[in-house]
Amino acid sequence: MKSLLSTLTSRGPHHVLRGNLAIAGQPGVVYTPETGKNLPAIAFAHGWLTGASRYRELLEHLASWGFVVAAPDTERGPIPSHLDLATDLLTTLDICTGVRLGDGQISVHPDRLVLAGHAMGAGTAVLAAAQRRVAAVAALHPAPTAPAAENVAGSIEIPALILAGAQDLDSVSSNALPLATEWAGPQLLRTLDGANHNGIVEGRRALDAFGIGKYQAKVARRTRAILTGYLLHTVLDDKTYAAFADPEAQVPHTTVVDPHAPREEEKKKSGLPIGAIAALLRR
To answer: For position 135, what pLDDT does the model report?
Structure first.
């Protein structure tokens, strides 16, 4: 696993091209390998008060491993419409499958599509997946949406990777646990040690001055590797990376959470001193 993580932390073998989705009528960006036919494609949705540019390294990394990665750059204001962003994700997939990208040397296979996102974007990816069957869903640090993504998760039978900070599972800003609990298809909920919910957002933000949600380079690299490995196996059936979709696999600095297990059992597995926590709550 350490060897696989080291490999996937590095850029993949493909030279990456960058394009503008607005040419096809959808504001946003697209990153692709230089050439390739019948490639897998990922539509990625950003978090609250961010934009596609804040995930450049993540999107480029996925493209370097052979994925067409497109990110709509809409609903960036303080009161976004989650349903509209979900619609934009589906439009983005239509562009990827219906338009020859680059100089015509790049095409996408219609059965190799992924919906992904971060924070509220993770929730909108789930809302979109309830409307269209894709090969996989990736929810990075999912946050509550309106309507609630967990309310439609019970109708989605495709594989899902859900990543969250280890301390975020019981937070009101995360719905990773209810999302995994309600998911109808195979799901893998994995927590990352020391990660905050905005740790993968690149660049400086206004909240950095208050010490909230600073970029975490190590967490971002680990996230890129885990996500890439999961999608290479789930979407492309690359057996080399099967461990990233295996709940029994030990990935350093992460823990697999069984959403259906009693929470006390999960705390025991993680080594948390339950008695000490109870004592603190009594104070």
So the answer is: 98
Both tokens of 93, joined, read: 């997939």
In sequence order, which residues have a C-beta less than 8 Å from that of residue 63 and are 6 or more positions away? 14, 16, 17, 31, 32, 33, 69
pLDDT tens for 22-34 read: 988 999 999 999 9
Q: Peptide bond preceding 159: is omega within 30 degrees of 0, i.e. cis?
A: no
* 16, two tokens: 């990456």
pLDDT of residue 243: 95
Least trusted range by pLDDT, from 76-85, 94-103, 248-257: 94-103
Bridge partners of 32?
17
Q: Residue 278: pLDDT above 50?
A: no
- Higher local confidence (pLDDT), 262 or 131: 131
Q: How confident is the model at residue 206, as a pLDDT?
A: 52
How would you write the chain as a 3-class SS string?
CHHHHHHHHCCCCCCEEEEEHHHHCCCEEEEEECCEEEEEEEEEECCCCCCHHHHHHHHHHHHHCCCEEEEECCCCCCCCCHHHHHHHHHHHHHHHHHCCECCCCEEEEEEEEEEEEECHHHHHHHHHHCCCCCCEEEEECCCCCCCCCHHHHCCCCCCEEEEEECCCCCCCCCCHHHHHHHCCCCEEEEEECCCCCCCCCCCCCHHHHHCCCCCCHHHHHHHHHHHHHHHHHHHHCCHHHHHHHCCCCCCCCEEEECCCCCHHHHHHHHCCCHHHHHHHHHC
How far is residue 183's CA from residue 172's CA, in Å, rounded to a whole number? 19
Q: What is the mean pLDDT of residues 47-52?
A: 94
Percent of the chain with pLDDT over 90: 76
Tell me the pairing of strands 106-118 and 187-192. unpaired
